[in-house]
């Protein structure tokens, strides 16, 4: 395929030539300015067999430098850039219309934002922004790309969810809800899509060292939490934050680890937990239909065990990482 793609948005107007060769799969990824999206884009573009042409999208091209640098020689060959804001109908349409024949073989919905804090201190508007990005942003993309995939009887839609789409985490109430919503949506849609030979896969990372983590820590430190009582604010800042930093330090994966999970396997699967540590945690939830087991376990881990939690997490890390392997799906 030799397509011209119109790039517009945020006052920026430029054109890029897309050079996907015959037989190459067109992979469109959202949120490639940093983190997991950036690494997925680079790894796919560097595929030794050059099986993919990657359209790496971001909402602001001023943030492209890290990606362009990491892509190196692949930039302009197996990787091109386009503007895309998942919260904007027009931006999504323009991007997909700019692709030759609107042909996308693999859609990777990666763009997402986090939100932490006591619920009573977060304005509803801020919560809506999370759903607008993490939930409606993905649906907006799928609505634009899926009909063509169904017509062609082929395609792969990948959604970067989170382990928090399977298990709620204290003070991440709204973020977890947005990912749970996505999981329910995908579970429902995957069945219908099979009839059209379109595959849907969820990637469920635990903590990953990206700007996401830095933004979260910054956000907690700066938050004044208006509307929340002092006891709750104390739990948030002095119990949740240190535990959260601990968890990121001990269990955090790199964006490359997550990207590899997606790329290195032979056959796509529906659910893909990238971090083996979380397999028993999710199993615990489903082992007890009353839900009390996991609620109580998390309660004791956070509020009763204090510093012991660090020891427990370290022990669990060593217990699980040797015997459980990451699952992988490849975008094909
Ligand atoms: N890091 C973790 O611990 C973790 C764990 C589980 C799941 N995840 C999920 O992984 C995905 C990627 O996150 P990350 O860790 O790589 O964080 P990140 O480094 O903050 O990357 C998020 C990306 O999403 C983009 N984005 C945000 N709003 C957007 C919008 N409206 N339209 C288009 N792009 C938008 C950001 O672009 P800008 O540069 O313009 O802001 C950025 O490129 C998210 O869906 C997140 O929920 C992350």
UniProtKB/TrEMBL annotation:
Pfam families: adh_short. NADP(+) binds at residues 31-59, 85, 179. GO terms for molecular function: all-trans-retinol dehydrogenase (NAD+) activity; estradiol 17-beta-dehydrogenase [NAD(P)+] activity. One of its GO terms (biological process) is estrogen biosynthetic process. The keyword Membrane does not apply. The keyword Lipid metabolism applies. Coiled coil: none annotated. GO terms for cellular component: cytosol. InterPro entries: 17beta_DH (IPR011348), KR_dom (IPR057326), NAD(P)-bd_dom_sf (IPR036291), Sc_DH/Rdtase_CS (IPR020904), SDR_fam (IPR002347). It comes from the Eukaryota. The active site is at 175 (proton acceptor). Substrate binds at residue 162. Keywords: Lipid metabolism, Oxidoreductase. Residues 25-206 form the Ketoreductase domain. PANTHER family: RETINOL DEHYDROGENASE 8, RETINOL DEHYDROGENASE-RELATED. Belongs to the short-chain dehydrogenases/reductases (SDR) family. This is Retinol dehydrogenase 8. It comes from Mastacembelus armatus (zig-zag eel).
């Amino acid at each position: 395929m030799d397509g011209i793609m119109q790039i517009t948005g945020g006052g920026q107007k430029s054109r890029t030539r897309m050079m996907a060769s015959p037989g190459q799969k067109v992979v469109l990824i959202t949120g490639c300015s940093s983190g997991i999206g950036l690494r997925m884009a680079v790894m796919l573009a560097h595929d030794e067999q050059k099986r993919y042409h990657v359209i790496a999208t971001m909402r602001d091209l001023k943030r492209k430098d890290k990606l362009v640098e990491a892509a190196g020689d692949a930039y302009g060959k197996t990787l091109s850039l386009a503007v895309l804001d998942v919260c904007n109908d027009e931006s999504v349409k323009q991007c997909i219309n700019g692709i030759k024949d609107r042909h996308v073989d693999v859609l990777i919905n990666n763009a997402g934002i986090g939100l932490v804090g006591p619920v009573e201190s977060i304005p509803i508007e801020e919560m809506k922004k999370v759903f607008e990005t993490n939930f409606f942003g993905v649906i907006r993309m799928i609505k634009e790309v899926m009909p063509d995939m169904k017509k062609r009887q082929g395609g792969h839609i990948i959604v970067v969810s989170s382990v928090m789409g399977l298990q709620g985490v204290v003070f991440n109430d709204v973020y977890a809800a947005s990912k749970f919503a996505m999981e329910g949506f995908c579970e429902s849609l995957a069945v219908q899509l099979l009839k059209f030979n379109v595959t849907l896969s969820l990637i469920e990372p635990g903590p990953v060292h990206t700007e996401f983590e830095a933004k979260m820590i910054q956000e907690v430190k700066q938050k004044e939490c208006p509307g929340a009582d002092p006891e709750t604010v104390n739990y948030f800042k002095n119990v949740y934050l240190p535990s959260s930093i601990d968890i990121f330090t001990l269990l955090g994966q790199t964006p490359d680890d997550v990207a590899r999970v997606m790329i290195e396997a032979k056959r796509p699967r529906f659910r893909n937990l990238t971090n083996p540590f979380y397999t028993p945690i999710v199993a615990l939830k489903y082992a007890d239909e009353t839900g009390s087991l996991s609620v109580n376990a998390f309660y004791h881990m956070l509020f009763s065990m204090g510093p012991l939690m660090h020891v427990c997490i370290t022990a669990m890390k060593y217990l699980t990482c040797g015997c459980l392997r990451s699952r992988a799906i490849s975008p094909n």
